Structures are given as C-alpha cells and as structure tokens.
Amino acid sequence: MLRTFKVEKFHASIIPESTLFKVLKYLDKEVIETPFLLIDSEMIKEKVSMIGRHIRNSKIFYAVKANPDIEILKFLNELNLGFEISSEGELEILSSLGVEPERIISSNPVKSLKFLKMAAKYGIHFFSYDSADEVDKLTKVVPHCNVYVRLSVPNEGSEWPLSKKFGVELDEAATLLTYAKDKGLNPVGITFHVGSQCTNVYNWNIALDKAKALWELAERNKIKLTLLNIGGGYPIKYTKNVVSIETIEKNVNNLIYDKFPKNIEIHIEPGRAVVGEAGIFVATVIGKAQRSDEEWLYIDIGVFNGLMESVGGIKYSYIVESYKHTKYKKRYTIAGPSCDSFDVIDKNVTLPEPDTGNLILILSSGAYTVSYASEFNGFSIPKTILIQRKGKR
Ligand SMILES: Cc1ncc(COP(=O)(O)O)c(C=O)c1O
User: Fold this and answer.
1) Ligand 1 pocket mutation pick from 44, 59, 65 by most atoms within 8 angstroms of CB
2) How far apart are CA 129 and CA 254, in angstroms?
3) Ligand 1 centroid to 142 CA: how many Å?
4) Other CB atoms within 10 Å distance of the CB of residue 286
5) DSSP readout, 264-295?
6) Residue in 196, 234, 272 to alter for ligand 1 test, most ligand atoms within 8 A of Cβ
7) Which of 72, 80, 258, 340 has a CA 20 to 30 Å removed from the CA of 48?
8) Per-residue pLDDT averaged across 368-375, rounded?
9) Residue 154: pLDDT above 90?
C-alpha cells in the first residue's frame, strides 16, 4: 500500500534523506502491527565512524543502556566496538554474543555485589567508583582490578543531567584514589559525565580542568594515572541542530593535549549518539478529541512504553501520514495510549491533521526509548527492527 507522509523541509535537517527513504520504503512493503522501532544500521555505522575520530588514542565503549537490542549489539560487536555495562542482564546479552571481557567496562559507580561477582567471573577488569564502600566491595570481589574515580562536574546545558546522583569533588576523589591503592586495587584514571544530550561544549572544558587538577593531586600522592574516561553526552538532533561531534571532539582533543601527559588512554562511552538518530518509531493514531480549545491526538506509544524521556523535556519531531494538505495544520497535544494522565508526550505540536488509523513517525527515537519501556496498562513494548544492507538480511 502506498502511503502519503507529510515530509517537510525541516525534517531533512533532523534525519538524513537516506534513512527516511529506507523507512518509508519499509512501510510500503511491510504490514506490521504498530508500535515498532525501525533502526537504520548504516546510520549507526556512520555514527560509530564519526565518534573518536578526532580524539587521539581513544577507544569507544557503547553504553548498552541506550538500546540493548540484541540485533543492534550483534551489529556493534561486528564493528568491534567496546561496551559499557551496569547489570547482570546487560552482561548476559554480551556473553551470549561472545564479547571478550577486555572489550567490556563498567562505569556505574555503584554496582551490586551480584553483578560484580558475575563480572569478575567473566574477566572484566575496569570499574568506576566514587565511594569507599565501592572500593571495599571491589577489593573483596575483584581484587587488583583497575579502577577510575568519578568526578562530579557541571551538567548545566544538558537536557538529561546525571551529576547529582554520582561523582565526588576533587579532594574526596584524591582521597579515594589513595584509598583504592592502599586496598590493593589499581587506580588507573578519572571519569566524569557532562550529562546526557549535552549541548553546551563548555561543560567539557570545565570537566577537563577539574580532571587535570585531580590528575596533579594524584601525582603528588604518588599515584600515576594513565586513563581518562570522558563518559558520554554527545548530543543528537531531535527538533533542532546541535553542536557536531567533530566540534566537540576537536575541542576535547586540544584540551587533553594541552593539559595532560601525552599518550594517555582515552575512553569514550557514547550511548545516545550511537543509536538515537538511527531510530524511528512507527506508531498509529488511535484517537482524536477536542477538549475545550485543545486538540488532542492519541497514539499507541506513550510515556510508559517508549517515550519516557519526553517527561524530562526531550521534544521529538513527528511526520504524520495524512491526506490533507500541509497548509491545513493544527496544534496538537500528543498523548500515549494509557489511562494515566501523566501519559502526555508533547504539547503545541503543529502537524497536518491525520485520521485515526493513520501512522505517525517519531524521529530520533533510537536511544533511551525501548530500553525504558514497560507494559503498563497492557500496552506492548515496541519491537525493534534493524534494517540491514541488502544481502545482510
Ligand atoms: C556512566 C555512563 N556512561 C555513558 C552513558 C551514556 O551517555 P550518553 O547516552 O549521553 O552518551 C551514561 C548515560 O547515562 C552513563 O551513565
């Protein structure tokens, strides 16, 4: 069935034409019950090739939490990427794919004993921490492992801040490096996270200044560090352009070159930037209503089964299937399918009017969507479909 989607100019600035073309072609060929998430594998490959390109001596560890779909992980494994994990579940998937322990790190500063035991048995040897309690756990379960301390850094300008929950200030971080050494662990470095979807390049400047100060403090305490883990945070395009990976990395690379000893190892842990823009949710309009002067559009993906980040302020771009002219637009409040009044995804979204039963595409929805989803109220978690190059699948 040939479908009519209202693709507008600004959509082309959000996702590449090639990805959109693949998705529209897929929808013309396949009849699948919505909701589902289409992922363009070539877009993932392109993103992976951009990340780390401008940072000397860097290795990438994909943050599995962003999207742990097995086909995506298989694909990334074939690209020989490293992985950053936090839980037994994430490790189980990677072990089913035979990922070598040397390619896995864990940067969640507080890990359960159960996970640590499993990670130790698997041979994982790089862990972050930000408390003496974590050092005590690591000493018991993974003695002599490599550890890097999490520094607290400003998250202003990040749409998904992370720093209040984790990280310590300079003096405490220095004390913790010494404490880890005294306990027989191998303190190798420093990590920080500037906050997810970080659109403020200066966050990296401040973070690197702090990391340099800690590096020097450690040296004074006779601890020679070799690793700087710069976390994730690279932003993606949702409704507008953001600073490019190239700009961020060139800046970070220059700062590292100026401030730190040459030849230190850099770890990068991108999640959102690897899979976010490669994903497009395909949903169905399940109902419409006018409530006083507000037009409501109800769709079969909501806050609980995929669009949780909308609650934290992430705003998506939409393409609707509509047979009405783009001139006749309405301003919608878009809501999910559940009975909960919290299940509202967005307000004041101007769209050509779709009919109930028409499809609606939600752009840049590959990261932190399905991985957050629940079956609350009996609504299904969207399945993920990886579109591979011809011949692959
Ligand atoms: C420790 C750690 N590393 C990496 C990431 C990935 O961050 P992003 O998706 O912003 O690249 C996260 C996100 O929560 C994280 O907590």
Assistant:
1) 65
2) 27
3) 23
4) 15
5) -EEEE--SHHHHTTTEEEEEEEEEEEEETTEE
6) 196
7) 258
8) 97
9) no
* Ligand 1 center from residue 268 Cα (angstroms): 10
Q: Domains in the chain, start-ordered, CATH in brackets?
A: 9-40+276-387 (2.40.37.10), 41-274 (3.20.20.10)
Q: Residue 308 and residue 300: Cα distance in Å, rounded?
A: 14
**Beta strand 36-40 with 279-291: parallel, antiparallel or unpaired?**
antiparallel
The protein residue with its alpha carbon nearest to ligand 1, atom 5, reads 232
pLDDT score at 49:
98
Instruction: List pLDDT tens digits, range 246-267.
Output: 999 999 999 999 999 999 999 9
**Is 339 one of the catalytic residues?**
yes
pTM above 0.90, yes or no: yes
Tell the residue nearest (CA) to atom 7 of ligand 1: 232
Active-site option among 220, 339, 341, 390:
339
Give the three-class secondary structure for 296. Answer: strand
Convert 308-347 to b/e letters by CB count within 10 Å (16 or more is b). Answer: bbbeeebebbbbbbbeeeeeebeebbbbbbbeeeebbbbe
The residue that leads in pLDDT, 346 or 165, is 346
Classify 352 in phi/psi space as left (phi over 0), alpha (psi -120 to 50) or beta.
beta
pLDDT 10s digits, 84-100: 999 999 999 999 999 99
Per residue in 273-309, pLDDT (tens digit) is 999 999 999 999 999 999 999 999 999 999 999 999 9
Residue 128's H or E segment, with its range, is strand 126-129
- Distance from the alpha carbon of residue 269 to the mean position of ligand 1, in angstroms: 6
